[in-house]
Design brief:
Elements lengths: L3 E2 H8 L3 H9 L7 E2 L6 E3 L4 H12 L4 H8 L3 H33 L13 E10 L9 E5 L3 E8 L2 H15 L1 H4 L6 H22 L7 E2 L1 E7 L2 E7 L3 E6 L2 E4 L6 H7 L5 H5 L19 E6 L5 E5 L1 H4 L4 H10 L3 H14 L6 E10 L1
Antiparallel strand pairs: 1-3, 2-3, 4-14, 5-6, 6-7, 6-8, 8-9, 9-12, 10-11, 10-13, 13-14
Helix pairs in contact: 6-8
The protein binds magnesium ion.
Length: about 350
Amino acid sequence: MGLLTIGSFARASRLSPKALRLYDELGLLRPARVDPLSGYRLYDPRQLEQARLVAWLRRIGMPLARIRVVCELPAAAAAKEVAAYWSQVESDTEARRRLTTFLIDYLSGKDTAMPDARTTLGIRYAVRSDVGKLRESNEDAAYAGPRLLAVADGLGGHAGGEVASAAAIDALRPLDAELPAGDLLNALEHAVRQANDAMRHIAESDPSLRGLGTTLTAMLLSGSQLALVHIGDSRAYLLRDGELFQITHDHTLVQTLVDDGRLTPDEAASHPQRSLLLRAIDGKQSEPDLQLQDAIAGDRYLLCSDGLYTVVSAEKLREVMTAVADPEDVVRKLVDLANQGGGPDNITCVVADVVQL
Ligand code: MG
């Protein structure tokens, strides 16, 4: 069969000639031949299948750069890539849904950032940080107070890590004493920006600390809501009705590979680059994840550094958090378990129970 003009090919593929020209320019779908004299694009009927694939991927909202990747893959790998894209869309949508609900309430005058007189919730908390068995110093830092819970895992080695994690906690600490006037998420985001500025100043004033940075996972209680800020590979977990949910997403290379279906979680756990962070508070661009949780009496939260969860399995975490009542006993038990498992890294955990006051 001969080549089709752009008009006939557009009709057959149900794409507009304008779209076809765009896809050509973007390298998504090159014409089989371009007439050297007229410049007309000519298409092979065998290209119809790829044209339809591009059209479908556009309809599910996939960005053009990612479509290019899918088009170059064999069918089975393309299917995986589309699945990975969609699960990312769903998790982004879920985060946006929570923020939207919050904004609607906030703008309708139901100021959820203000304490609600009907529900007086508080937290019962405990915190423990331990150097572990192999490290010489503890570069983790943590904080737990009546409103604020935070874990930071410093990077940069030697003094740098310690300075960085302490600076991040210092930037958040005022939030425990005085609730911000505006909304919680803004307050947390602002604190992260301050921590990020602090990192830059420290690195500039002391060249031996260059390369310092820190993870930060923190929660702030106000009224019936808990705001969460997260950057790096420390984690927050929620124990509700006997089930343990990881509510943060690691900003690591291996997690991205797992999300894309290129590594299994087991392979990620033993990957040589498993601790490589894609995001941290390091004086450069530090964009945290933000989310809101409804504070529900009976919920138990765990914030921890990777020194805990890389050694103690999620099932074991769930078991201890379910079986042990007092938060102080829980953090002691968890640190002991990580040390019994070799304690290769600093171990830090904060456990907090949401309680009716
Ligand atoms: Mg660590």
